[in-house]
Each structure stands twice: as structure tokens, then as C-alpha cells.
Amino acid sequence: MHAPPVVVFGAGRSGTTWLAEIIAAAGLELIFEPLNELEVSEAARFRKQVRFLDETDMTAEWEPLFLKILRGEIRNGWTLRAGTRGERKVVKLIRANLVIKWMISRFELAPVFVIRNPLAVAYSLRTEGWEIPDSWVRWMIADKRLSRRYLSPLDDLLGRSLGSLEIFSLYWCIQNVVPKQQGLFSRIPVVQFEDLCRDPEGVIISLAPRLGIEITEAVREACHRWSIMKSQRAAQPGYDPATAWRTSLSAKEVAIVTGIVERFGLEEYLPR
């Protein structure tokens, strides 16, 4: 019997690629972001139409797409950019946080979720030049099932144009509050990015039994390599991805991010 694919979930700039690369070093093929509609034509219709799914949704039309994703059958230069090979797959996804519960209810997979301090994510999104439009936030909130169940009232923010740091903060909150409120953080392994930075070998050793992977020398070596998605500042002497935000965000900017995160009840992920 074949082991199920590992799926690494998380918001963008949270360390999902790094963790997936470490897992792939155990002999798995890394399938990179097969839901990126700009690189994968099969994902475009799903990304345009779907914001949120749970296990009660009648969604047979999307099941063939996700079967292809989990089987590693969406193959192009983008999805195979990590260059690893193996019969078993590890799929890295930052565009599926709001459908995790649906995926688990329909497919056999070994999930793991990565979460990173929202201040560090907001800083990294800005530094790496990400563009998340104001319209994305408004589109997500317009889904009444999603907003009523999981999202904080945001009328005061949405009555004006949002600054980029506000958008990054809302992106982080939406991506993380849904799986948390669905109870997934108590059902699947959750990795704190800061723990991965501090002790990558310890993190992967603790995950190995639940993911069904072997800790090889190649895995240990991967723990101490920069990811292919490393920050542009990673080569600078003394750069620490867990703390770089502290010298780059002003007190006012920290307050903006913190205020939004607290509105969603996610302050436990703020640094202390």
C-alpha cells in the first residue's frame, strides 16, 4: 500500500517551501504550488470561482483537479522547479488554506500546517515585493458563509482604501483564522516557523512518524540549507528570518499589524 502524499499548507512567506524541501529530501517529489493560476492553467477556474469549501459542500466538479494535484500529475517547469524526484509526493500549497477541511474529508493525505509570526510575514511580503490587491480582501469578505463564520467585522476598514500593510495583515489573518477556527490546528501537525528556524532537525524528527518519512542524512542536510524561496536579504551577514522584521517595521507599523491580528483573536501568534 502506497503512503499518502504529504501536503504542506500555510500562508505565503511562512516557510512552507523550506519545510517541503526538507520533507522531499527523504525521497519524495516536491510538487510546487499547483494552484497558482498564473502558472497552471488547470487551476484558473477553481481560483476564480472558489474562496472557501468545507466538508458539507457538494463539489464533485473540483475533485478531479485535486486528485491530479495529489498524484503529482500537474507537471511543468513551475510545479517541478525544486528538481526532486520520488514516487511519493509532497505538495506545497499556499492557496488552499480555506479548503483544507474539504480536502481531508475527501482525499487521503498527510497534512502539515506552517504558521509564522504575522509581523514577520507582513515584513517579508513587503520586502519580497508581493502585490495583494485590496480587491482580494473585499472578494473574500463578500463570501457570506466565510465572513459570518470566521471573519471579524471589518466595516470600518473596508470603508476606505487599504494600505499595503493592512492588506498583508488581513491576508495573514484570513489564511490562518479559518483553519484554526475549524479546529484543524488540533487535528493536524502545526509547525511554528520560528521553531523551524531555531531547531529544524528537532522539528522534522518530531514530524517524521506522523508524515511517514525517514530521517536520512539528506534530510538533516536539507535542514541547514536555504530554501529556493529564501528572502532576498538571506545572503546578508547575520540575517535571521525569525527576527529581521524587528529592525525594519516602525512602531506605528507594528501597531497596524497587531491591531488587525487582535481583531481576529490570533494574538497568540504575535511575538512576546
Question: How would you explain this protein's 3D organization?
Answer:
By secondary structure, the chain is of the alpha/beta class. The chain has one domain (6-269): Rossmann fold, CATH 3.40.50. The chain has helices at 16-24, 44-49, 63-70, 100-106, 118-127, 134-141, 144-150, 155-158, 164-181, 193-198, 200-211, 217-222, 251-263; strands at 6-10, 29-32, 89-93, 110-115, 190-192. The chain has a five-stranded parallel beta sheet. Helix 5 (118-127) crosses helix 9. The longest helix is centred in the middle third of the chain and has 18 residues, at 164-181. It is globular and about 50 Å long.
Corresponding CATH architecture:
3-Layer(aba) Sandwich
SSE class: alpha/beta
What is the end-to-end distance? 45 Å
Report the average pLDDT across residues: 96
Order of helices and strands: EHEHHEHEHHHHHEHHHH
List the helices and strands and how they pair.
Blueprint: E1 6-10, H1 16-24, E2 29-32, H2 44-49, H3 63-70, E3 89-93, H4 100-106, E4 110-115, H5 118-127, H6 134-141, H7 144-150, H8 155-158, H9 164-181, E5 190-192, H10 193-198, H11 200-211, H12 217-222, H13 251-263
Helix pairs in contact: 5-9, 9-13
